[in-house]
Amino acid sequence: MNGIGEASQEEREPPPQSDYDKKKQTFITRTIWTLVMIAGFFIAMFAGHIYVIGIVTAIQIVSFKEVIAIANVPSRAKNLPFTRSLNWYFLGMTMYFLYGESVIYYFKHIILVDRVLLPFATHHRFISFMLYVIGFVFFVGSLQKGHYRFQFTQFAWTHMAIGLINVEAHFIMNNIFEGMIWFFLPASLVITNDIFAYICGITFGRTQLIKLSPKKTVEGFVGAWILTIFFGYAMTNVLMRYQYFICPVNDLGANIFTGLHCDPNPVFLPQTYTIHLPLLLHQPPLTFSVAPMQFHILVFASFASLIAPFGGFFASGLKRTFKVKDFGESIPGHGGITDRMDCQFIMGFFAFMYYQSFIAVYRASVGGVIEMAVQGLSAEEQVEVLRGLGKYLVGQGMVGPEVGECLAGVLAKRRR
Question: Which of 67, 157, 204, 390 is the 20 to 30 Å CA partner of 224?
Fold first, then answer.
């Protein structure tokens, strides 16, 4: 009877999967979740900037969690209950500082005229600094004999994770505020370059590129660079036609259906260029029109192809150091969020710096003028500005005389 029972039990146990079946299941899972992520990304992008900011926020929190986890030692962490809390405290403090900087900069025309928010805006950096000091003091006070090395390692590791993930994610969020194109275009260049590198690598790759990633080849690297330039040029030509992508955010409630409206940055407007051919050719000058953005995209595509992949190589070296295959299991079939975002952080950082250095047009804004008046003028001077602005608007016919008289009356009462 025992023999019969054991035999029937063996029959009920499923046979072990072959390597082929495992790879097939992994491929199916990976494909499904890739399509889910792509669909979710486009839905958020078309739903509005605030939803994309929400995705970036979630990504940086999960990435921080994954990076912190690979250096954690659970047995020691149990004996030091405040270690984990301090990691999240420093993350929260950093996000308060960085998000506050962005909100104050891009929405100062709203923040600086609100009585409740004004003190937080004008003293934001000091408040952030004091929050950091509180965390620093608490860390020093929590040091325990026999755990110094582990605690200082966690402290340094936390700051490294914040610098590499959250600070760079902050600039990605600023790209969203400057215009959806400055977020979507760099992200799409990195994704397509990775795809092109894979296709070119398996097609005619022969020479290993770097030991940290044995499957990367020189042929795939160069082939992806060329194809990414063509993709970037084509994608830029499409995105420039829609103000929803090229306009800075002036309404967080906007979406693809309501759209955005602005005077386009000159970089998106066609300009005429003339090339003078050598006299020996006896040909007239060659004239053509093209938007300057189509020159800038060559730089973006080259950075996404030649530099951004080193963010992935850095992540590979980090995983080898701690002997882990992936940063986590946040995305079935893909590993962790950090495994998919390792190149995106440095690309978004570059996009912000390049935009601010070579593309951004700096003009006086309503928020900038209000900031100068609030922080640089006394109350009496602010009243004089208001009186002079009222007279100007009446003189230009933009408001009626009754508005000017009402304003003058209110200001006169204030002076008494």
Answer: 67
Strands 213-217 and 271-275: unpaired
What's the CA gap between 18 and 171, in Å, rounded?
46
Question: pLDDT digits over 37-73, tens only?
Answer: 888 888 988 999 999 999 999 999 999 999 998 877 6
Between CA 126 and CA 130, with CA 129 as vertex, the angle to 5 degrees is: 90
* Residue 150: closest CA among 71, 69, 65, 68: 71
DSSP letter assigned to residue 276: P
- Backbone phi, then psi, for 364, in 5-degree steps? -70, 130
For residues 63 and 168, the answer to whether their CB atoms sit within 8 Å is: no
How many angstroms separate the CA atoms of 271 and 290, rounded? 6
Selection from 215, 231, 225, 227 nearest residue 312 by Cα: 215
Residue 3 or 30, more confident = 30
Angle between helices 49-70 and 167-178 (to 10 degrees): 170
DSSP letter, residue 271: E
H helix or E strand, kind and range, residue 273: strand 271-275
Q: Which residues contact 389 (CB under 8 A, 6 or more apart)?
A: none
365 forms bridges with which residues in the sheet? none
First to last CA, the chain: 108
Pairwise CA distance, residues 264 & 256, whole Å: 17
The model's pLDDT over 291-347, given as tens digits with 9 standing for 90+, comes to 999 999 999 999 999 999 999 899 988 888 888 888 888 887 777 888 888 899 999
Nearest to 245 by CA among 330, 187, 307, 171: 187
* Bridge partners (DSSP) listed for residue 217: 208
- Rounded distance between C-alpha atoms, residue 173 and residue 186, angstroms: 13
Alpha-carbon separation of residue 246 from 45, 146, 171, 270 (angstroms): 13, 56, 17, 14
* Percentages of the chain per state (helix, strand, coil), in multiples of 5: 75, 5, 25
CB atoms near residue 250 (< 10 Å): 13
What distances in angstroms separate CA 217 from CA 198, 205, 282, 319, one per listed residue? 9, 6, 46, 20
Angle CA 381–385–391, to nearest 5: 145
Report the residue count for the chain.
416
CA angle 115, 132, 372 (to 5 degrees): 35
Give me the helices (H) in 13-48, please. Answer: 19-47
Q: Which two tokens stand for residue 383?
A: 């009243």
